[in-house]
Each structure stands twice: as structure tokens, then as C-alpha cells.
Amino acid sequence: MTTPGIRPLVAGNWKMNGTLAMAGALVSDINGRYRQAALKADLLLCPPFPYLAAVGGQLTGTGISLGAQDCHTGASGAHTGDVSAQMLADLGCRYVILGHSERRADHGESSALVAAKAKAALAAGLGAIICVGETEAQRNAGEEKKIVEYQIIDSIPAEATATNAVIAYEPVWAIGTGKTPTPADVEAMHRHIRALLVTRVPGGAGMRILYGGSVKPSNAAELMAVPEVNGALVGGASLKVEDFWAIAEGAAKSAA
Ligand code: 13P
């Protein structure tokens, strides 16, 4: 087990990819495999907003969870183009990904904003998957632990607990690049995050810490077996059923 007592979570972040037809085919394939597998891991699919209702319909009663990729800080109001956490909960979402590095970079999201979004998500009954991770320059400068530490301290709202929040460590330089940290580097960072969570979050010893960034079938078993890695946040490989399934099996095996 990578952390005794923690069941792995394997989440697919589809980002802004796919079509309605592709979503339907992908989810029906995953459902079919999940039904027959008795996997020792929880699965979560996070499609783009417009496909949430359709994918949620397909996932009803399967045991696989639905999640979104962002939400607003407010419950409702004049925020053209935004979506509230309560709306996501209405659609059957269990989780929402917050503070992904692509949102931090593309939309200038600060950790304070991420914390406010997470607070709104928790108030709506959603689980918050809070993303953190250093850039290549920050790692080259030896600052990765400090950067991630600040991001965690500033992005986690006071209401977070081990059961309603998840941390995803995603080094920015590993996202979509095919590059990954070594298992030793992943272990060092996840142990650092764990130590921080234990001191800052109720039940922090039992909070899930996912790894994300170029997780593939070829590296999943190795990465998922690293101590304090409690699952994966998967981007590109979550769009191919064989790849996503192989990663889920890798995570499940590490917890067996
Ligand atoms: P890739 O798996 O495509 O590197 O993306 C990781 C990610 O950003 C998941 O949120």
C-alpha cells in the first residue's frame, strides 16, 4: 500500500477535449470494464462542462464518480460564462478540480482564489481536488518544495478535511510533455506534502495526494507504487480507454 488505509483515486481530466459522441463511447467502454473488474480503486471522470449531464447520466448507478474542472466562488449571480459549485452538485458531480496549473496560467488564478473556490465547492457538498506544482525553472532553482508548500497553505480553505478535499501534485513541466519526475523525486514531494497536511488539515494523515503529469500505462505501476502516492490525475491518457484502464489497474495493484 502506498499509504496504509487510503484507497486510491484515479481521475481523468479530459480538459477541453472530446466530442459528445466520443464521450459516450469512452464512458460506455469504461463502465463495461469497471462492472467486471472489482477494481480496488475509485474512478472519477471530469469531462468539459457541456458533457457533464450526458456523462453523468451514463455513470448513474455505476460507482464511478463525475467531476468538473472548475467552479466559481459564488453561489449565483451576474457572472457571465461561469458555473457555480451548486450547479455542478445539481448535475450529480461529486468532485471539482480547482487550481489546475492551466487555470493558474491561462486565467491568472491565485492560490487565494483557488481557496475561495474550494470553500464554495465544499459548501455545495463537492469534494475539492486542489492542484499544486512547480514550474521547471522553480525546480531547477531548487525551490519546488517551498513553492508547493506555499500553494498548499494558501489554496486549502479552513473547511478542508481529509474526506472532502484531495491534493493533486502536478509538476507543471511534466504536464503533457512526456517527462516525469523520478519516483524518488515524487516520493520526496509527496512525503513533504503529507507532513504539511498532517499539521494543517484535520485527518491530514488520511487525505489523498494524487500524482499528475504524463501518467501513462508504461509508468503507472512504478509511479502508483511510490509511498504517499494515493492515485493519479490523468490528462491525455484519460481519453483512451485502454490507457486509462491500465493506469487504474496500476493504481489498484499498488493498494492491493
Ligand atoms: P497529462 O496526463 O496529459 O500530462 O496531464 C496531466 C494533467 O494536467 C491532469 O490534470
Concise synopsis of the structure shown:
The chain is α/β, with parallel strands linked by helices and 256 residues long. It has helices at 20-37, 52-59, 85-90, 101-106, 111-123, 136-140, 144-155, 183-200, 217-224, 241-255; strands spanning 9-13, 42-46, 65-68, 95-98, 127-132, 165-169, 209-212, 231-234. 1,3-dihydroxyacetonephosphate is lined by residues 13, 100, 170, 175-176, 212-215, 233-237.
Write a structural description:
The chain is of the alpha/beta class and about 260 residues long. The protein is about 45% helix and about 15% strand. It contains 10 helices and 8 strands. The protein has helices spanning about 20-35, 50-60, 85-90, 100-105, 110-125, 135-140, 145-155, 185-200, 215-225, 240-255, and strands at about 10-15, 40-45, 65-70, 95-100, 125-130, 165-170, 210, 230-235. Strands 1-2-3-4-5-6-7-8 form an 8-stranded parallel beta barrel, surrounded by 5 helices. β2 (about 40-45), α2 (about 50-60) and β3 form a beta-alpha-beta unit. α1 (about 20-35) packs parallel to α2 and α5 packs across α7 (about 145-155). The chain is globular. The termini are close together. Bound molecules: 1,3-dihydroxyacetonephosphate. 1,3-dihydroxyacetonephosphate (13P) binds near residues 235 and 236.
Task: For the structure shown, list the relevant keywords.
globular; 256 residues; alpha/beta; 10 helices; binds 1,3-dihydroxyacetonephosphate; 14% strand
